[in-house]
Design brief:
With 710 residues, the chain is α/β, with parallel strands linked by helices. It is 29% helix and 16% strand. It has three domains: 3-333, TIM Barrel (Alpha-Beta Barrel); 342-549, 3-Layer(aba) Sandwich (Rossmann fold); 591-709, Immunoglobulins (Immunoglobulin-like). The protein contains 21 helices and 23 strands. The chain has a six-stranded mixed beta sheet with strand order 9-14-13-12-10-11, with helices on both faces. Strand 6 (217-218) and strand 7 form a beta hairpin.
Length: 710
């Protein structure tokens, strides 16, 4: 039994919370709706700060394991691994909380309510915060989101290990510069097919404890004050029983940005009345006045505080220490040897091999005398971590990972190559001031490893970036600054060039795909990222990552950034050929599929089970990501959509017979009214290591297996 199944315990928590609320004054209750809730000493209520972050590790509160950024973890396509990471993060969270409580430290980032995961859909590669998400696909985002929530919250029958939060509900993915005033207009069909599924899964399957509203409006109404989103859909339709929080200072936007209210009192009344229990910000202090003016019923505030106290009781923070098993987690687990090993494993499994001309990778260290490492991200710690990050006790950059791996046997020569986004590395220098050094290193080296890309100062949240990119969104999909020019210099040397890209989103690598020998997508690979990338480059590990986003050829292919229609967006609706498709990623070995068929007569309304055999036909052990796609044969249907995943590890020459079960929901489409229905025209199911599209088949040299349901 888990806590979400222990109805007696849940009822007891809620009744206990109600009894506590009944003893409080209006002023005391209102104070509890603020993220930095003060103590109520006469009732034995301790101060509590609700604001904490755990996007890819415990963030902003000192030393913790810094896992790969969320988009990198998404590239593993591995929901079991995501739960394992979530469990590791909540273990460190409890250890740090226990330590902090002993010191009576209740500051920001010191609680057990974590505002993660971000399950928004990465609908446009220009969006700066896209690397916080699990990519562009609703199914993949749902599966990974649910399991990360379960890892964070644990499986105890009496207590939550930590409280997760699905954000930002519901239709939210840029532009960052406009988020405080923007109206994201979406059809009912797109909301049900694309923007809602991950939130619904986190609520109904993951039993996520909190949901955060978005900054923007959706179809004219601010998300943090939307009766349709927060009450009609979230609570009444999906059965959500946790608490709702605003995004930070989002309620202020009601009158300052969206201009749907006139002042603070009207804004807090709109948010509270329509289901927002907690204010990340300070505006809810106006609720006392709003109640006295008749704008808000005090009973609604009672309900909100009851929701909040119930969450704290689920965490056990109102109970005696010996009652809660998580209170016994020692601080020594933080940044432990076991955590570092898991971090390296996750990083290794997140890396995607995009190109490997003539099998140049893996490199054979015995055949190398000098390796040239160039590029602004080669020795960058910032390029390891993304945003919403913790603090690692050691960071291993790509340069350091290569140096550590090769030791004294192989000479490693290094050049910064260029600034990350400027045309010179120092203000007094001329443009391209490291180009001669790059030429010199290339001339001396047997192979060039160029480490390019971005970091979170270029792509990130509005206000977090600190350069001419400004708002955090990308102006285009190109490598910034003069990185492309440095790659051309490396290519002109005649030496093999391997490109490692560290960034959190799709990059237009058309020239690189045509001219370079190998391309590795490393994402923001975490504090152990340099070790993981070295493991991939030199064959200590076999790449298994798959793209959770489409890589386009140029910005010109994309619809308008402010258009929230899914038409022409992502692999599910695009009509042009991708540079690198969603679900694509190469391996150092090959896999063969056989005996693909239905287990019994297929019935889409009962679910369909497919059996198949996968054999590792290469010379290296590896892990295949089996992907099942469903395409409705109806004329207006989306492209084939991911609906099933199986990870299988195989030794060289080994084969296994497996099954994938597709639920009835895998075959449902939504009409213009947002109603789920089946396609009378039938379906095509694809099983293989990629999408069934022509570009994936051309890049991998393999075809997927197709099954028909008439």
């Amino acid at each position: 039994m888990e806590l979400n199944e222990n109805k007696d315990k849940l009822r007891a928590y809620r009744e206990r919370a109600k009894a506590l609320v009944a003893q409080m004054t209006l002023e005391e209750k209102v104070e509890q709706t603020l993220y930095n809730s003060p103590a109520v000493e006469r009732l034995g209520i301790k101060a509590y700060n609700w604001w904490n972050e755990a996007l890819h590790g415990v963030a902003r509160a000192g030393t913790a394991t810094v896992f790969p950024q969320a988009i990198g973890m998404a590239a593993t396509f591995d929901e079991d691994l995501l739960e394992q990471v979530g469990d590791a993060v909540s273990t460190e969270a409890r250890a740090k909380f226990n330590m902090q409580q002993r010191g009576k430290d209740t500051d920001i980032y010191k609680g057990l309510t974590f505002w993660a995961p971000n399950v928004n859909i990465f609908r446009d590669p220009r969006w700066g915060r896209g690397h916080e998400t699990f990519g562009e696909d609703p199914y993949l985002t749902s599966r990974l989101g649910v399991r990360y929530v379960q890892g964070l919250q644990g499986h105890d029958e009496n207590y939550l290990k930590a409280a997760a939060c699905a954000k930002h509900f519901a239709v939210h993915s840029g532009p960052e510069a406009l988020r405080h005033e923007f109206d994201a207009v979406a059809t009912k069909q797109d909301m049900r097919e694309t923007y809602f599924p991950a939130f619904r899964a986190c609520v109904q399957e993951g039993h996520v404890e909190a949901v955060m509203g978005a900054y923007n409006r959706t179809n004219g109404v601010p998300c943090c004050g939307s009766h349709e989103l927060l009450i009609d859909i979230l609570r009444d339709e999906w059965g959500f029983e946790g608490h709702v929080t605003s995004d930070c200072w989002a309620i202020r936007d009601f009158y300052e940005g969206h201009k749907v209210t006139s002042n603070a009192q009207e804004s807090v009344a709109m948010a509270m009345t329509n289901g927002c229990d907690l204010n990340c910000g300070t505006l809810y202090s106006y609720l006392v006045q709003a109640v006295k003016e008749g704008l808000v019923e005090e009973s609604r505030i009672d309900e909100a505080v009851t929701n909040l106290f119930t969450s704290r009781m689920k965490l056990g923070v109102f109970d005696q220490k010996e009652d809660n098993p998580f209170d016994r987690i020692p601080y020594s687990v933080v940044d432990s040897k076991e955590m570092r090993a898991l971090n390296r494993e996750v990083s290794t499994r997140s890396i995607v091999l995009l190109k490997n001309e003539n099998n140049i990778l893996p490199l054979d260290r015995k055949r190398l005398k000098t390796v040239g490492v160039i590029g602004p991200n080669a020795d960058s710690r910032s390029a390891l971590v993304g945003n919403y990050e913790g603090t690692a006790s050691r960071y291993v950059t790509v340069l350091e990972g290569i140096q550590d791996y090769l030791g004294d046997d192989v000479r490693v020569m290094y050049s910064l190559g260029c600034h990350l986004y400027k045309d010179r590395t120092t203000g007094l220098a001329e443009a391209n001031d490291r180009s001669s050094e790059v030429r010199g290193i290339c001339a001396e080296s047997d192979v060039i490893i160029a480490v390019m890309g971005m970091d979170a100062t270029l792509e990130g949240e509005q206000g977090d970036t600190s350069n001419e990119y400004g708002c955090g969104d990308k102006p285009d999909l190109r490598l910034p600054g003069i990185q492309h020019d440095i790659l051309k210099i490396a290519k002109e040397s005649g030496k093999p060039v391997i490109l490692v890209v560290l960034c959190g989103s799709a990059t237009a690598l058309t020239w690189e795909q045509e001219h370079l020998d190998a391309i590795v997508q490393g994402w923001y690979p975490g504090a152990q990222g340099g070790k993981a990338i070295a493991d991939i480059l030199f064959g200590e590990a076999n790449p298994q990552g798959k793209l959770p986003v489409t890589f386009y050829r140029s910005t010109e292919e994309l619809p308008d950034f402010e258009d929230y229609s899914m038409k022409g967006r992502t692999y599910r609706y695009m009509t042009q050929e991708a540079l690198y498709p969603f679900g694509y990623g190469l391996s150092y070995t090959t896999y063969d599929y056989s005996n693909v068929g239905f287990a019994g007569a297929p019935d889409i309304r009962q679910g369909v089970e497919i059996h198949f055999t996968v054999k590792n036909t290469g010379a290296m052990d590896g892990t295949e990501t089996v992907q099942a796609y469903v395409k409705a044969k109806r004329e207006d249907a989306p492209n084939a959509q991911l609906k099933g995943i199986r990870k299988v590890t195989l030794r060289a020459g080994e084969e296994k017979t497996l099954t994938i079960r597709l639920s009835p929901e895998a075959f449902q489409l939504y009409n213009e009214d947002g109603i789920a229905e089946y396609a009378a025209e039938g379906y095509e199911i694809s099983i293989g290591g990629s999408q069934p599209d022509a570009r994936s088949c051309a890049l991998t040299g393999t075809k997927t297996h197709l099954l028909q349901i008439v």
